[in-house]
Design goal:
Length: 469
């Protein structure tokens, strides 16, 4: 039994024990070490030969319906699912690492499972991509799945870097690139800054010092600068100068994270923001027509899939200007460029539907016309350089953003995304950190106690890690 598989056994055993002791606690994710891999071969432009006969059940594992919507509209509804094949969706929310736990349990049983029960395709995020990329549970996109280098040539390089293993083998592809920006409420910007013009707003918010100054102005006018204390976290965490974990397996707080802690303490002390997390209903309530938050942060998927629905006064009516605060929003780069999220498609080892997975990958991540259509429908900044350049130079206008072309705003940021500091630990270090410091921000504990609480929880999740010496 391989090292990765042995550790997955421990995951399942630990999860069962943990659920008995404290069923409300987040699922712990164990250490996932690098595995020894064969020397990478130069990918061939010749597709892999398809299996003689593929399976009749196509199992897809994911954590929400975002990919499901795109799969249905741009693949299934186009008649691309072979006749007689059933698409089976297994959706497990990602909160507390639950999706990873479900995925790990199923991958552990992949070899012994009946063919129709095996995972065929599964999705991963950047925050934990390396855990699966550097394992034998994901297939080589070129050699094993059958894509060619020509198929992936126009993808943003960082999206390939994230899913390239330690030996240079590409293990996953994405339909998205996810440069983020500052999403602002136009009517509030007019009141606070005297203008809602994107150029004027960007000039007023192009550094954190300016952002802080405008936060004080917004407060004086009765507004919040952000809807919740976690709103800016991804901007800071995406601009770190070093990985979360150093070569000695020590958890290290980057100066950028410390800057976020200091800023957030000031914002809550001064009433510039509210004590809500990104996904809290109270945070999204501040985007409603009577909401008082000036700024949100996120990429195209965030304002389309998450923020936009919250702005509607009537969720059953057309999403259009006049329905709640829809259309009363704009987008600028903000104090720092950043990226957030993205979803990568992986082919599971042991699948009997590799040929179908290849067609899904090719259609949804490599086909320029499909990617342009996804951008038009869902506002995604899709993973095709020439397609996004084409949209940026066009008269494309998003009604949610008051007719603004958000692709043009984010184009430069997409080219400069740097993934050199990611680790396999990022999700379950980044996600719990804000909550670990909330009691400090609210004055209930000291800053030292907040750090101690964070380290204790992090080491419970990853027993191989330790505090800095």
């Amino acid at each position: 039994m391989g090292t990765f598989k042995k550790l997955l056994v421990l995951v399942v055993a630990f999860a069962i024990m943990a659920s008995i002791v404290a069923c409300q606690q987040p699922v712990s994710e164990p250490e996932q070490p690098q595995e020894t891999k064969p020397v990478a071969e130069t990918p061939s432009d010749k597709p892999a030969e398809p299996a003689v006969e593929e399976g009749k059940v196509f199992n897809i594992y994911c954590w929400n319906t975002e990919f499901q919507d795109r799969f249905k509209m741009f693949f299934e509804d186009k008649g691309l699912v072979p006749e007689g094949v059933t698409v089976n969706w297994v959706i497990t929310p990602s909160d507390g690492g639950a999706y990873q736990q479900k995925l790990d349990e199923t991958l552990l049983a992949q070899e012994s499972a009946a063919a129709d029960d095996r995972i065929d395709l599964f999705l991963i995020e950047a925050d934990y991509a390396l855990k699966y990329v550097n394992s034998d549970y994901t297939l080589d996109v070129y050699k094993s799945v059958g894509l060619t280098e020509a198929d992936t040539a126009d993808m943003y390089q960082y999206t390939k870097d994230i899913c390239t293993d330690a030996n240079g083998i590409l293990k996953g592809v994405s339909w998205q690139a996810c440069p983020g920006g500052l999403i602002y409420r136009r009517s509030i910007a007019k009141d606070v800054l005297g203008s809602d013009d994107p150029a004027t707003v960007q000039a007023a918010l192009d550094s954190w010092a300016k952002f802080d100054a405008v936060a004080a102005q917004a407060k004086a006018k009765g507004y919040y600068m952000t809807s919740g204390y976690v709103a800016t976290y991804r901007t800071f965490s995406n601009n770190v100068s070093a990985p979360w974990v150093n070569e000695n397996d020590e958890i290290v707080f980057d100066p950028s994270i410390k800057q976020w802690i200091a800023q957030t303490k000031t914002y809550l002390d001064n009433g510039y923001t509210l004590p809500y997390g990104i996904w809290d209903a109270e945070s999204f309530n501040e985007a409603k027509v009577d909401g008082r938050a000036m700024c949100y942060f996120g990429p195209g998927w965030f304002f389309d899939f998450c923020l936009m629905p919250a702005t509607l006064a009537d969720s059953e009516a057309e999403a259009a200007p006049g329905n709640g605060s829809y259309g009363d929003w704009g987008l600028v780069k903000g104090p720092q460029g950043f990226f957030w999220g993205g979803t990568w498609i992986c082919a599971a080892a042991g699948s009997d539907n590799v040929g179908l997975t290849r067609e899904v990958m090719k259609t949804l991540t490599c086909d320029k016309d499909t990617l342009l259509a996804i951008t038009e429908k869902y506002a995604d900044f899709t993973n095709n350089v020439s397609a996004m350049q084409e949209v940026a130079a066009s008269d494309y206008a998003h009604p949610f953003l008051g007719g603004q072309n958000h692709i043009a705003v984010l184009l430069d940021s997409a080219q400069s995304i740097d993934m050199s500091n990611i680790t396999m630990y990022d999700q379950l270090l980044n996600e719990p950190l804000p909550a670990a410091f909330l009691d400090y921000f609210l004055g209930n504990i000291t800053e030292e106690e907040a750090y101690d609480n964070f380290f204790t929880a992090a080491i419970e999740t990853y027993p191989n890690l330790k505090r800095p010496g």
